[in-house]
What we know:
With 326 residues, this protein is of the alpha/beta class.
Amino acid sequence: MSAPSRPRPAAPSGAAAPPGGAVTGAPTSPPRVLTVGVVGAGRVGAVLGAALAAAGHRVVAASGGSGASAARLALLLPEARNGPAAEVARAAADLLLIAVPDDALAGVVAGLAEAGALRPGQVVAHTSGAHGLGVLAPAVAVGARPLALHPAMTFTGTPDDLDRLAGISYGVTAPAELRPLAARLVVDFGGVPEWVGETDRPLYHAALAHGANHLVTLVNEAADRLRDAGVTQPEKVLAPLLRAALENALRLGDDALTGPVSRGDAGTVRRHLERLAATAPESVPPYLALARRAADRAIAAGRLRPADAVALLDVLGGTYREVSRA
């Protein structure tokens, strides 16, 4: 069985030319077909490895110790041998892709360097959104070339993810001489590079986590409160509303804001808070935080006049403390 295949996209116009002008002083270009190893056969690593295989690269080895990782490798990378991380790194002649949790990344890189598993000229890339090139310093110290390559997508670790890769953005941080290779890899994944500065990686990742991860929490909070209100299938109520809100927000920005906060309806918001405090007090703080931020943005965007916001801001900034303790 071979890795799932998909049409290979055309290179986006100007993908290999990052902002700031042409790249100079680049080393000898790596071969068109790369020999690749994947450290971390989680949802991201296994899928990106399969995408590289589908683009024609040789994914020769991958590491995945858990049963779930072994199953993913059997499904997505059946021709790659499963072994310890150091063996995978040694087998990856051209590109080592490290896809491990953010907090584990530094230790994995340091361990591979200390074990002598990395070599000069080898490209060592990680998929963490939170880290840039600094975490790869131990690899650079032994002559490897660093690359940070983060897909802005959520993964299930199944073949369905391969179709979702088409057209997504990748937050890329790379030294100048590696930017053409980074752009080429993103094209092979089917995506578009977004060049992110080293010091901006935490902000980039915070934005994605705030938008995607907190969205999941927010949706489930809304579903729970609908159940509390007696709605038996909250997903059917929320689905069309949330889809429209998301599409409008992406298209219109703050002009998409509707509801009692954007209208300055202080009485409605106070009733919300009173009922939430009685039914689900744990929902009061996030409601308040988001309502206050929505009010600030509505005022700044001219959607809500400051004069109409006085009573609302009083509820959000003062009276609510009594509500939350009720």
